[in-house]
């Protein structure tokens, strides 16, 4: 069988597995990689709340300068939180953290995964649904569970923003403890975070989007020129 058809069937099958695993209830999320303000807010949320456990080891801090419009001084002062051989990590380094894998595995039961490619492997909607589906469960070690990913060994890091939800007998989540943000405000913050993780998973998308319009205009212009040439070549052929 042709390799491209094999790849196509694998892609469709893996997508269906991801969808089925979620119970077919993934929540839609508005991704806008052209919104630099959203990407900047997402970066802030990630480094304030996620970078302590999760890495972005296939991405470099220096990419944020051109892609997100964040100054080098801002990155060095607020985003680079690690050191290398006693000196602060350099701007061109990949994004890692200082956690001890043995210690964190003992505490959580698993090493927190790198999130660089999560948006590509699972999808933006999966991440958004996951981060909005935590609820209180005192039977779990972290005191919370997740509708999309049952029995996940991860605390609800953003509980202070969202608050705590509980699940009733009808499997409906309701707010038990109000957080700092309203539900709408929290969903907007998660949208910004997912937008950022989507960008990190494939930074080249920004460049593709920026030149896409020019490529389409060129093709339209080229098609017009081709049409005029066709008329000229066939003018004397009757």
Strands, helices and their partners?
Elements: H1 3-21, H2 36-49, E1 56-60, H3 63-68, H4 72-79, E2 83-84, E3 87-88, E4 94-95, H5 101-108, H6 118-121, H7 124-131, E5 134-136, E6 144-146, H8 159-162, E7 163-167, E8 173-178, H9 183-201, H10 204-233
Antiparallel strand pairs: 1-4, 2-3, 5-6, 7-8
Helix pairs in contact: 2-9, 7-9
How does this model look, in words?
Residues 4-23 have low confidence and may be disordered. The protein folds into two domains: 3-202, Orthogonal Bundle (Cytochrome Bc1 Complex, Chain D, domain 2), CATH 1.10.760; 205-238. It starts with a helix and ends in a 5-residue tail after the last helix. The strands form four sheets. It has a two-stranded antiparallel sheet. Strands 2-3 form a two-stranded antiparallel ribbon. A two-stranded antiparallel ribbon has the order 5-6. Helix 2 (36-49) packs across helix 9 (183-201) and helix 7 runs antiparallel to helix 9. It is built from ten helices and eight strands. It has 238 residues and is mainly α. It is extended. The chain has helices spanning 3-21, 36-49, 63-68, 72-79, 101-108, 118-121, 124-131, 159-162, 183-201, 204-233, and strands at 56-60, 83-84, 87-88, 94-95, 134-136, 144-146, 163-167, 173-178.
Task: Give descriptors for this structure.
single chain; 238 residues; mainly alpha; Cytochrome Bc1 Complex, Chain D, domain 2; 2 domains; two-stranded antiparallel ribbon; 50% helix; extended
Separate helix tally: 10
- Residue-averaged pLDDT, rounded? 87
Binned, the helix content reads 40-55%
Give the number of DSSP strands. Answer: 8
The name of the CATH superfamily of the largest domain reads Cytochrome c-like domain
CATH C-level class of the largest domain: Mainly Alpha
Distance between the termini: 46 Å
